[in-house]
Amino acid sequence: MVAARRRHIGVAVEHRHILVTETLRPDGTRPVPGDPDHLPAHRIEPHHLVVWAARRYLVAYDLTDNEWRVSRVDRLHPRPTTQCFATRALPHPDLAHFVMSTHDRGDTPAAWQCTGTARLNLPAHIVARCAPGGSVVEHLDTEYCRLTLGAWSWAGISGILATFDTEITELHPPELVHACRRLTRQWAAVADTENLGPSHE
After folding, report:
1. Other CB atoms closer than 10 Å to residue 155's CB: what's the count?
2. Is the N end or the C end of the chain the one with fewer CB atoms within 10 Å?
3. Is there a contact between 73 and 58 (Cβ–Cβ < 8 Å)?
4. Residue closest to 63 by CA, chosen among 98, 18, 5
């Protein structure tokens, strides 16, 4: 089923045929009318397929909302048409950059042993460009976003969050908070050791 959906999208990109698409749930199931998460189908112009972080993304112009979108291919349920579309000027000359900096691209956290969230004092498009593949970046406002990501350990998530070098609040769950505190103590101990300088014994 997934292979067939990918083939439909690939053919539509190659032949520049409009697609009618619905968004699938993270588990791959398709909401039906009456479900609380059901969304109406959209007509899109599928322009390019881009592979990033081992996932395929479709760069398309959404005719329903009149805007460019980046969507994970495995989260789309496409219905082919034979209606052609003309080439449009792309939203960014570097498509990989456009995919990486688009926070609302349908990602879901990978199946990690640990998954946590935090509020970062950075715009969503900046965090999306630097976050690991499979992370979810939620736009909060022009200055803040919420990042959900996974790792094999809470310390691993703490280390990734530290790389953003910004104000981090609203950490969840408590295990992530404790890991951040441990990391802070460990780095403080390293800094204290360095400040002692070389021994003069």
Report:
1. 17
2. C
3. yes
4. 18
Please report which helix (H) or strand (E) contains residue 174, including its range.
helix 174-196
Helices (H), the chain: 2-15, 95-101, 124-130, 154-162, 174-196
* Helix%, strand%, coil% for the chain, nearest 5: 30, 30, 35
3-state SS class at 201:
coil
- By the 8 A CB rule, do 72 and 49 touch? no
Tens digits of residue pLDDT in 7-21: 899 999 999 999 999
Q: Please work out, in degrees rounded to the nearest 5, the angle formed at the alpha carbon of residue 109 by the alpha carbons of 93 and 91.
A: 15
- pLDDT at residue 40 greater than cutoff 50: yes
Distance between CA atoms of residues 48 and 73, nearest Å? 11
Cβ neighbours, 10 Å, residue 39? 9
SS3 87: coil
Cα–Cα distance measured from residue 148 to residue 140, given in angstroms and rounded to the nearest whole number: 13
Query: Which residues, listed in sequence order, are joined to residue 168 by a DSSP beta bridge?
Result: 120
Instruction: Provide the whole-model pTM.
Output: 0.69
